[in-house]
């Protein structure tokens, strides 16, 4: 009875309400919560996305993996890290070089991502928009490790590579 009412509250205009509801839905361990929590992973507020990730982990439903995989590419590092931890708890293991690269970036292992070669290029370029200087610097360093011609042609990714922070990172590496 409470689950449908809570699910409806995931659309509340107040982000703190949405986050609290996402957290509460995990306590019910009901498959009815799977789709609404998966949709909450797209919420504009980080706290709501984090609560939804945690609740999907509590549900323990393997069908949550596909929605959680998308969170490995979230713009917020905390969301990427939480998604990686939850996926691990659900038994997910990356099976392709790109999945291994994305999973490594999600937990801050940029050099390990570069070990995946060319498949790591796009995820590493996306990481240039990281939350912190350290994340962006690590992405630049990992790109420099790649034996990939695209990593040397900055004009392809001008907006990411030409930001003042990333220019400083590139100068430090030269």
How would you describe this structure in keywords?
single chain; 174 residues; mainly alpha; 12 helices
Helix-strand pattern: HHHHHHHHHHHH
Q: Which structural category do the helix and sheet elements fall into? A: mainly alpha
* Strand content range: under 5%
Shape: elongated
Low-confidence stretches: none
Q: Report the total helices.
A: 12
- Number of DSSP E strands: 0
Distance between the termini: 62 Å
Helix content range: 55-70%
How would you state the average pLDDT, rounded?
88
Gyration radius, to the nearest Å? Answer: 18 Å
User: What's the main sheet like?
Assistant: none
Your description of this structure?
- This protein has 174 residues and is an all-alpha fold.
- The protein is 64% helix and 0% strand.
- Helix 10 (133-145) crosses helix 12 (164-173).
- It starts with a helix and ends with a helix.
What is the element layout, followed by pairings?
Elements: H1 2-9, H2 15-28, H3 34-40, H4 46-59, H5 65-71, H6 77-89, H7 97-106, H8 110-114, H9 121-127, H10 133-145, H11 158-161, H12 164-173
Helix pairs in contact: 1-2, 2-4, 3-4, 4-6, 5-6, 9-10, 10-12
Give a brief outline of the structure.
By secondary structure, this protein is mostly helical.
């Amino acid at each position: 009875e409470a689950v449908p009412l809570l699910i409806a509250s995931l659309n509340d205009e107040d982000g703190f309400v949405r986050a609290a509801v996402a957290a509460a839905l995990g306590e019910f361990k009901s498959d009815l919560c799977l789709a609404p929590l998966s949709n909450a992973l797209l919420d504009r507020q980080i706290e709501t996305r984090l609560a939804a990730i945690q609740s999907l982990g509590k549900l323990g439903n393997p069908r949550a993996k596909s929605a959680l995989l998308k969170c490995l590419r979230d713009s917020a590092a905390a969301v990427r890290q939480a998604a990686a931890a939850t996926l691990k708890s659900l038994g997910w293991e990356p099976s392709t070089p790109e999945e291994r690269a994305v999973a490594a970036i999600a937990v801050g292992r940029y050099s390990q991502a570069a070990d995946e070669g060319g498949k790591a290029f796009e995820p590493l370029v996306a990481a240039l928009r990281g939350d912190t200087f350290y994340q962006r610097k690590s992405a630049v360093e990992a790109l420099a490790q790649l034996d990939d011609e695209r990593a040397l042609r900055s004009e392809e990714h001008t907006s990411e590579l030409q930001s003042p922070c990333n220019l400083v990172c590139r100068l430090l590496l030269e």
